[in-house]
Hints:
Number of strands of chain A: 24
Strand content of chain A: 25-35%
Radius of gyration of chain B: 18 Å
Largest sheet of chain A: 9 strands, mixed
Oligomer: heterodimer
Largest interface: A-B, 48 and 51 residues
Shape of chain A: globular
Order of helices and strands of chain B: HHHHEHEEHEHHHHHHH
Distance between the termini of chain A: 79 Å
Number of helices of chain A: 10
Radius of gyration of chain A: 28 Å
Structural class of chain A: alpha+beta
Helix content of chain A: 25-40%
Distance between the termini of chain B: 28 Å
Number of helices of chain B: 13
Number of strands of chain B: 4
Strand content of chain B: under 5%
Amino acid sequence: MKKIKLLVIAMTACTISAQAFCGFYVAKADGKLFNKSSQVIMVRNSSNQKNTITMANDYEGDFKEFAMVVPVPVVLQENDIKVVRKDLFERFDGYSAPRLAEYYDQNPCWENRVFKSMLFNSESYNLNDVIMEKADKNKYEGVTVEAEYEIGEYDILILSATESSGLKNWLTDNGYKIPEKANEVLIPYIKDDMKFFLAKVNTKRLNNRRGKYLSPLQISFTHKKFMLPIRLGMANSNGNQDLIVYALTQNGRVETSNYRTKVMPSNTDVPLFVRDVFGDFYKSVFSKAWTNNKSSAFVEYSWDLDGKNFTKCDPCNTTPPEAQELSNVGVDWLRTTRNSWGANYSGKLHFTRLHIRYNRKTYPQDLAFIETKNKENFQCRYVLRNPAKINDESCDKVLPYYQKVLDRRNIELDNLEDITWWEREWYSAYPKKYENKITRLKAQQNQKEDENEDENNLFPVFPSGTIPPIILSFLIGLSLIGIALIALHNKQQTLKL
Amino acid sequence: MNLILKLKNPRIFQIIFLGSFLIFGLFFLEWKINLFVVSIMFFTVTGTQFLAIKKLNLPYASLLSAIISGLGLLLLLRANSIKTYILAAIITIASKFIIKHNGKHIFNPVNFGIILTIMLTGDAWISPGQWGSSSLYILIIGIFSWLVLIEVKQLITGIVFLSTLFILETVYLNLYLGWPMDFVLHKFTSGSLLLFSFFMITDPRTTPNNSTIRAIWSSVVGLLSFYLMEFHYLSSAPFWVLFFISPLTPFLNKINSTPSFQWTYNNQKSIQ
Lengths: 497, 272
């Protein structure tokens, strides 16, 4: 009886694009450059303070023109820098992306069974233009080239500087065209003794690799700082930039310590037509959540991936990351073993996916992170409920069932209006279909219907409507305690007097 | 007249303020705690306090201070397990009766409860990112009404602490590193920091008795917090500093012979 359908919808418009990191792109020529949304995998070992940051790179212009600057707290050694496979981002994104779960109603005249299936999709994000400006020529005062490496297709330089004007001139003269405004962030970074990680592409080595794209760059360093420098990227643009952080830690959920961390709306029933436009739907959900809380980081996924935790997602978009993939992104504290909990590693691990849309106004500071002990699992999940196909309408359970579907469709539209910018009036045809069915059936039956059937949700979500009576009783309780205490207190004082 | 007298008890006000922050956090900021945790917390703090009242023959009105402690824990401490909250509540209330010197607490009970729970269980944490800058207005309104309602003298400790921190952060971040002023101000939008400044460090029972020493003491807390926040990236630094500096208070009180702080209803104004 039970049938599980697995639908995978490939939507060309919404494929994930691995994108560039929060430093800034700089070009030799005034080519068209886009600083799109960025994806970063951050691994933090809290016991030895080792950070491994992997930055996706989907630069699409001429590779000769590619140049990237990232502030780092220490001078990196050659073996601290790697290039890794691009598909790691697709794996991590696929695993943690917002998901759509789909359920099928049982024909009300049959026994209780549920058909379940799921499908998934990912998000794509807006592009932001990068404005390039010209810089003056001057001396390279205070600039030291600390190290020079050839890693994969990249030529890497680590610079330290004592004068921002010297650094700026050095960058300009060496083909890193930096925006005028970058000065206001270069000065604090220099004074804070940050080093500058510069990467350019050596096209000869790229040709050897027969590469059509640039590999993600990975850097590791041991430092107390658990942060991402986003300010440099903002020097380029006044617009919003999106950043997805996949954080892998030992103990629990990662939060931003200097901005509010908020979870995305989740576990909401949405209309069936969302299936075909899930990418646009989620964009709208995120846009609305962000508009209401502009300086918040949003949790899109948070899961305890301990080797012993059997359930590593529910429903799973893809298989959870495996030992080798985790090791490739810098998780070095797991032991590779076969175990009976469905993982090929053992050890503590927590996966957090944060989505941050930042701009200069709402994000004055770089992102600082804190690893909490919060092990609560969270996923961004939206639910579709397919009504049963009923051919024979003679059974007396059909009319109440249609009524139930109609009510549910109205709730789904309310939810849609609640969490997205879409308005329910646009979709009046959606409940109308069942209104018509009910009218027709009523006319056919030509008898009084009983509408008192209890709703029996097989997969209950927790509607927010249940909160107000709780608040009320809580407040009443609190005030009663207060009154009692005041009375007691008065009695005490009277006794004293 | 009687009603005004009743309302003059600052602890009632404090319960109203902290309670509204809690309700705001629960229903508008979607904090990790729920009404079950809230009720367990109130039950445990009042229960523990009640036992102490029976044992030590204390006035029943001291239950109010237990409720304030419970609110303080609920606002600041986060944990996965309900057992951790219960443990924190018991530690907090018990510390008031166990760790004493010359009739004064050595540690601020809520601070002691939070730090000890974090150290002992590995299941608890402080969540500085739970407030957000939009809720700041509510906090500021609350704190200003608090300032208006009680004598500013009591809050001098918090004001000295906050000003020291502000001056040091401005000098370091703005004047030295060159970050713009909104970068500096953003540091002070932390709800936890404001609660610490106006409801925790102001506790007269755990601060030095002499007003000059108290002012120096709170600026030292500010200085150390600044150091830990900027150079060791510890976002909850003030709580740790207060915890480790508290045992110094009895020594500071010995140096100065000002009569010890007397406990009355009207000067009990911090998270107890």
